[in-house]
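Hi support team,

I've been running sequence recovery on a batch of backbones for a student project. Most finish fine, but this one hangs at about 90% for roughly twenty minutes before it completes. I'm not sure whether the input is malformed or the queue is just slow. I've pasted the structure tokens below so you can try to reproduce it. Let me know if you need the job ID as well.

Thanks,
M.K.
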């Protein structure tokens, strides 16, 4: 561990990943995520695209990798890395995806039976020219969406969701980021069940 957060995690003083999100502490080490989610994490390479830079001796090609990561149970990360070789790009993207892991909030479409299965409310996310809107769907509807957001929603663990998008969704990077942005907004949206006053507890950095 290099950061204070890493040390607290290693010593077992922070029990859950949610304790880190509660105080929105920046996660700077990928191993923290490994420690909490470990085996449950699945990663998938969304796309590898060559990007070129014009030099006076022709072009220099580098590879840009988009990696999605999730435990299919409310955690999702997205990483983008550019590198000379494909393998290094993917490896770097996986690390970055781990660092960017966010909590995804679940909710119900109608009456609250069983486990939450869809997004809690309509949320939108935007990146570049792409706008993605996630709409709660009834149980059994599945994730109704394009292949890119579908992978991300599946990684986060949503069972049912309607989606709408506008803009140039062919730009895969922005399409993925917009979806990621929308899912990250599910917890920032203030719903009535967040109204009761919460007892303030000390942040881990002050406590230990």
């Amino acid at each position: 561990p290099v950061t204070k957060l890493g040390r607290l995690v290693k010593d077992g003083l922070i029990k859950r990943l949610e304790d880190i999100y509660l105080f929105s502490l920046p996660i700077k080490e990928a191993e923290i995520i490994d420690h909490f989610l470990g085996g449950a994490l699945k990663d998938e390479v969304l796309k590898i695209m060559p990007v070129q830079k014009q030099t006076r001796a022709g072009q220099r090609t580098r590879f840009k990798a988009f990696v999605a990561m999730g435990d299919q149970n409310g955690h999702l990360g997205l990483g983008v890395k550019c590198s000379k070789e494909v393998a290094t790009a993917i490896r770097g993207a996986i690390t970055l995806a781990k660092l960017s892991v966010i909590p995804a909030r679940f909710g119900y479409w109608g009456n609250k039976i069983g486990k939450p299965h869809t997004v809690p409310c309509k949320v939108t996310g935007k990146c570049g020219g792409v706008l993605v809107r996630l709409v709660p769907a009834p149980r059994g509807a599945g994730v109704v969406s394009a292949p890119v957001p579908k992978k991300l929603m599946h990684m986060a663990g949503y069972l049912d969701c309607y989606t709408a998008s506008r803009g140039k969704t062919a730009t895969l990077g922005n399409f993925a980021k917009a979806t990621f942005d929308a899912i990250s907004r599910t917890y920032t949206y203030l719903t009535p069940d967040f109204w009761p006053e919460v007892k303030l507890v000390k942040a881990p950095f002050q406590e230990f």
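--
Follow-up from support: It reproduced on our side and the slowdown came from queue contention, not your input. The chain has a mean pLDDT of 93. No action needed from you.
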